[in-house]
Amino acid sequence: MPSALGSRVAVIGDGPAALSATERLIGAGMCVDLISSRPAPFGFLRHFAAPGTPTDGTPHLRLIGNVRVGSGGDITHRELHALGNHADPDLLVLELHARGLAITTWEGCFHPAAATAEPAAPTDWDAVISRAGLAPLCF
Prior knowledge:
Number of domains: 1
Largest sheet: 5 strands, mixed
Strand order of the largest sheet: 4-3-2-1-5
Shape: globular
Number of strands: 5
Order of helices and strands: EHEHEHHEHE
Radius of gyration: 15 Å
Strand content: 15-25%
Structural class: alpha/beta
Helix content: 25-40%
């Protein structure tokens, strides 16, 4: 089982597979940067910013919108990997601002187990990896 606590992953895209992978990764205790070419994914704030969500602790979810990833985009996968290797999680946003991009950002705490009274189930890493394989990720 990977040690997820404090790990940060970038999920690229905002389709159903990316949002599902994001939810599973956060549920496993990881911090996720969801990078979207749109300012905000459709239904994103309705799904992830539920009323009554605890706001204490480290934000586990950060949306970075208006960013095209890939060759010919605003940032390449290689650059994402390089920025992700630094301990400062704000470095990616600072780099995008330095490039003059008009990005949108939002961050918040998302606790899947907080939505129900049931205790959190142990992490099924096979399911997390399977779902994550359907969306581009940068560790």
